[in-house]
Amino acid sequence: MKNKMKYFAVLVLLAMGTSVAFVSCDDEDLPPIGGYNTADEVGEADLMAYFPLDGNGKEDISATNPSDLNNVSWAAGAKGQCAVLDSGYIAYPAIANLSTSMPSMTISCWAKVENNGAYGTMLFGLTRENEWAGNVNLMCETGWYGAGIDTLITKGLVVIKNTDGSANWQDSRNAAKLTADDIAAGGVASPNKVGGTWAQFVLTWDATTAMFKVYANGEKISNPQWESRNGGTALNLDFFTPTRPLIGTYESVVTGTPDSWQAKMTGSVDEIRVWKKALSAADINALYELEKAGR
Predict the structure, then answer these.
(1) What residue numbers bound the domain in which 131 lies?
(2) Residue 288, class by beta-carbon neighbours within 10 Å (0-12 exposed, 13-18 middle, 19+ buried)?
(3) Which of 12, 96, 157, 158 is the most buried (most CB within 10 A)?
């Protein structure tokens, strides 16, 4: 995990002088946010993977390094350093914690991406062999709007393995605009105006209720019309295997022949976490506030 950051309070001792005293203050000395002192405490018992992306791509819990860094550099990010992808990606070998089906799941990450009017942007996924869509995918549909438009469509997509081996596709996203009929049916529009800026994105899948939600900057943005899946009946995430983590692109780009809209990511990504549970809305908001504060 990242080393705990130090915060400093400056006490001015002389009204007209220059002498000051610096008092070191650890994270535990700061007021808790949502009951937590640091982001590492949120869902700690169920955290399966953490990619801090601090100058390298190592996954911290398993100490797994990337198998391929493609057009990646490192710069100041949302918290510490981040990965800057210039039409690039970060690929990994299989990681044990992420290779077994998890009935419920949460994925969070920070990203800075812009609309391009041409192709979508995969932020993070757990792949399926020879397929563009992985078992679980967190992405931005950056091809919907042209460059410079800040409305960003953010989407969660899961491909569940049915008992007969077929694929069950489910997705959830925000809707920038809704018709009057959509609104009457309970739909809620969320323009999600974060294109080109750092933002935290989260998807949650709750197996007990088959609820699929998407959040941005600590607030739910997914359209309620599309959150309840499988008629509200319990539905576990069952993975196709083998699977591996992939940041910034689609498996088809790395190993196959992609369609034109399947491209490598241009943008920045940081602070990726994966849990084997659906975090509550309160915990997601706390995670956002803590990471935004560098904690």
Answers:
(1) 38-292
(2) buried
(3) 158
Specify the 3-state DSSP secondary structure of 180.
helix
**Max CA separation in the chain (angstroms):** 78
- Residue 96: CATH number of its domain: 2.60.120.200
pLDDT digits (tens, 9 = 90+) for 53-99: 999 999 999 999 999 999 999 999 999 999 999 999 999 999 999 99
Asked whether residue 18 is domain-assigned, the answer is: no
Least confident of 16-30, 86-100, 149-163: 16-30
0.85 cut: is pTM over it?
yes
Size (the chain), residues: 295
Q: How far apart are CA 287 and CA 58, in angstroms?
A: 21
Mark residue 55 as left, alpha or beta (left: phi above 0; alpha: psi -120 to 50; beta: remaining): left
